[in-house]
Recover the amino acids of this structure.
């Protein structure tokens, strides 16, 4: 029986159902509160754009909601674990299960199975929903919540070097020769690196070579004068289509296959990709962190409830869970600076706390 992790179908279903309901309840509460706080901070900026009103507020909420769900789902699993096991401990349900011969691992097995299902669902949700909503929201924020392109390949805040000059755009859409830059700024610099002229334009299209501007105005630093430029004025002849393919990559807005292609393109151009590779691996290890939460929070469900240590055990479980998120974020930051290899940065916190949680459980309950 000790090696049968699901000795009772009824008990497995009861524990899994109770745990799943608590996850949904905690996640709903967290997302609702955080969505309200987020709207309080962004409503003024959204309504400041001409023509925006209540529909735009609802649109912002619909785009922000998937991000909040993805970010706080592991926290919800942790809190649901502590709430579920602490309540069962206080009601002597854990004592009854252990008296029936179940080990701590057998009690946790339905919770771990539920968490694994949540992890798989979270991964699919991130790949299919969160990446798209993140891309759209960032493009909308780049134009201060005004009208934006709805092309799926749009990128925000891109910049390219043309020798000593710099071409920047708030939004880049299209592919190849059909690429379009919106919210364009072009800085011409002298040999000393100082800005000699600044050109701003509504949009630019590829002119082979260079980029043809529309609605452009130029400011000359030496004379401190500004004037209009005719449509079709070409700038940045050194910015080629090959260079635009290496535009700034946002790993949060790209699913795994697309991010893999972006990393390969950067590697072939000799660019550094350690940070992006760490994010690639974290797209897998991040959702899988939900499986750790029942193990880290399990300490709250054992021990005698009447011993007065239930609160201390719950706090310990929360501390272990939140420590994982701190270490996980620190490892990703170290990878961005080149301190950790990408694979180690993404997976070391997961396995470290897997061993910590298992050690605490074995030493205290088994």
């Amino acid at each position: 029986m000790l090696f049968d992790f699901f000795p009772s179908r009824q008990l497995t279903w009861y524990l899994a159902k109770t745990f799943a309901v608590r996850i949904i309840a905690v996640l709903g509460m967290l997302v609702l509160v955080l969505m309200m706080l987020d709207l309080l901070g962004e409503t003024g900026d959204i309504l400041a754009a001409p023509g925006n009103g209540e529909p735009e507020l609802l649109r912002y909420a619909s785009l922000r909601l998937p991000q909040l769900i993805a970010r706080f789902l592991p926290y919800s699993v942790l809190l649901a674990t502590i709430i579920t096991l602490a309540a069962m401990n206080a009601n002597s349900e854990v004592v009854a299960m252990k008296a029936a011969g179940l080990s701590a691992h057998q009690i946790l097995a339905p919770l771990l199975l539920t968490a694994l299902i949540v992890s798989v669902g979270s991964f699919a949700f991130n790949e299919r929903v969160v990446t798209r909503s993140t891309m759209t929201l960032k493009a909308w924020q780049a134009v201060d919540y005004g009208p934006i392109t709805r092309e799926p390949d749009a990128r925000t805040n891109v910049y390219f070097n043309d020798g000593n000059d710099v071409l920047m755009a708030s939004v880049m859409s299209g592919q190849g020769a059909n690429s379009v830059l919106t919210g364009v700024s072009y800085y011409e610099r002298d040999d000393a690196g100082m800005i000699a002229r600044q050109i701003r334009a509504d949009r630019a299209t590829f002119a082979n070579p260079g980029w043809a501007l529309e609605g452009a105005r130029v400011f000359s630093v030496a004379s401190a004068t500004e004037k209009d430029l005719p449509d079709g004025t070409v700038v940045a002849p050194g910015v080629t289509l090959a260079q635009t393919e290496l535009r700034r990559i946002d790993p949060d807005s790209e699913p795994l296959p697309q991010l893999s292609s972006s990393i390969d393109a950067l590697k072939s151009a000799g660019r550094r990709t350690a940070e992006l590779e760490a994010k690639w691996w974290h797209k897998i290890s991040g959702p899988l962190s939900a499986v750790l939460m029942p193990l880290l929070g399990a300490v709250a469900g054992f021990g005698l409830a009447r011993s007065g240590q239930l609160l201390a055990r719950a706090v310990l479980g929360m501390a272990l869970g939140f420590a994982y998120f701190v270490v996980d974020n620190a490892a990703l930051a170290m990878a961005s600076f080149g301190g950790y290899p990408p694979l180690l940065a993404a997976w070391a916190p997961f396995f470290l706390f897997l061993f910590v949680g298992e050690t605490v459980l074995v030493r205290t309950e088994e």
